[in-house]
């Protein structure tokens, strides 16, 4: 029994020693606690997950090259016990893990790649040193004797997370890891937005306003900022003394000594956590109902509030719902569309969306039909409110049958119709045919020349000719890319 235990301990120790250094590289403890001018290091891809470059005084946080989504690379500050990234330098444009990235500090901290050059920089010409504080804040400081002035700090440029005591101002924004969702601070509120392409402004899907704004928020008394407080809330402040608003977490006012963080996650939900010594304990889930997540069922999806199940607005079940760009018409040469109507659908963020009072369903639909920037509309029969949707349709919720949904859906493939839409398609067809004919000619030519080479007794193993799938591929893949590039250029 005892021998068995010892064996276990030995195996554990060995596996610890084998896996641990791979994760942490040469060990967080041996990473520098300060980086001075002249520092330069290149990414070493033999570290499997994280190459530590700088440590904080407590050894809890570390700055280094982090592997992201198995194939990408970013500069990050991580919480070592959980290996979660609290800050990332360049989340919108991460590098490939295989890229030859380097980090240098010469007054300014610069992340570059040998092929593309500078990718990210703090643009602080005269910093003297780079330090990681025990709060996870990375700072570039200018020294004057023993006194340090902060020229730049990572706390001012959050990625998807705010940690305890980090000030969040209206000049900053949190972006979910996939960059689809953001959190911003307004004059007296903070809100969550969905960023959609199609040239539209981000759509607000959740908002928290400070209570009793008029009493507490004095105009011209300095900006509002928000901060995760150690007592378990997100406070909005105008002056340091007292918060003008308290947005409590589950552990509000309970004695928790672990680090707290607030993260905007890739499903669009904002969640708070605290570190209990072994796991991140969830402490807040801002959007409690799944159907209220703006994209939970994807584009043209429909969420059932009773069981949170997803379906499609057009009842299609196979191949998913309609493609996200189905309602994009502005500048697209007056493409034809058909109308999809569906009763009993509603917006989860109804109270945040602008509406108009109209006399009838026809008026609501008509105003949308004639406006190319309108993707659809929802009409409330009881109140006469018309909600135009001037952005790509995402998930709607099933609701009262008196709510009538109207959606403009592009008519795909050829067929009837006319006008500019047809001209555009004809042009695409011509371009596509030319590309196809060119490819076919080229294929025939290479086949012919290879045959000739073969006959001449040269390398015969290379005979491939046109692969059987070429015709089909050309028809779908390259044709689609033509269409895509077309609508992309028109959108701009
Ligand atoms: C972090 O550093 C500050 C000052 O630099 C110090 O007051 C505080 O006690 C430190 N906290 C921890 C957890 O070490
Ligand atoms: C947050 O803002 C307050 C008030 O301006 C300031 O006193 C404090 O030092 C700031 N904290 C950080 C980490 O920048
Ligand atoms: C942290 O939470 C987990 C799961 O609830 C629990 O198993 C663990 O004991 C907790 N750790 C501490 C130090 O409280
Ligand atoms: C989809 O199914 C629902 C319920 O079965 C039905 O009321 C609705 O008319 C259908 N919609 C379409 C567009 O087929
Ligand atoms: C079209 O819709 C957009 C967004 O709803 C609106 O701002 C614009 O004024 C409308 N244009 C016309 C001509 O009605
Ligand atoms: C809409 O309201 C009108 C009158 O307010 C009523 O006659 C009509 O039946 C309602 N339609 C639906 C689908 O509920």
UniProtKB/TrEMBL annotation:
Top-level taxonomic group: Eukaryota
What is the membrane topology listed in the Swiss-Prot or TrEMBL record?
A: Single-pass membrane protein
Domain Bulb-type lectin span(s) in chain numbering: 38-153
* Predominant subcellular localization, coarse grouping: membrane
**SMART domains, alphabetized:** B_lectin
Name a single GO biological process.
recognition of pollen
Q: Which residues form the Apple domain?
A: 330-414
What Gene Ontology cellular component terms go with this record?
membrane
Q: Where in the cell is it found?
A: Membrane
Task: Please describe what this protein does.
Answer: Involved in sporophytic self-incompatibility system (the inability of flowering plants to achieve self-fertilization).
Q: What is this protein called?
A: (wild Malaysian banana) hypothetical protein
